[in-house]
Amino acid sequence: MSSAHGDHGSVDLSSQNKFMNRLVGLGKIFDGPVTFFREKFVEKNRNEYPYYHRNYPRVPTIDQCAYGDHICFFEANEQYFRDRKVDKFITQILGRRAEECYIHNGPYDGFERCRKLDEDHEKALTNYYIKCR
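== NADH dehydrogenase [ubiquinone] 1 beta subcomplex subunit 10 ==
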């Protein structure tokens, strides 16, 4: 008769190990060349920062441009518009965070728990209007 735990479809462990070894070997066949190429060529030629993190050099502000230097005027204006757009997005993000905090915590608890987010948003708005308006 069978034991208390039963002999339900016991499989030989050595056959499982052989199967797993073959599966791992098959994976190495496909993964090996890709890993080799990545380690030897891609990572060695990659810059320190990802390609989508581009650093733009700061240009002089418009009051630092020489008289009649129209290229400098143009670059200064473009820098100003970029900075303004970034500051606008920052204020929008801070406003959304404060709003989501109030929604999550409710009108009564939100007043205390979201005070810091609200203050940060107000400060960012004040700085934005001082700088850009």
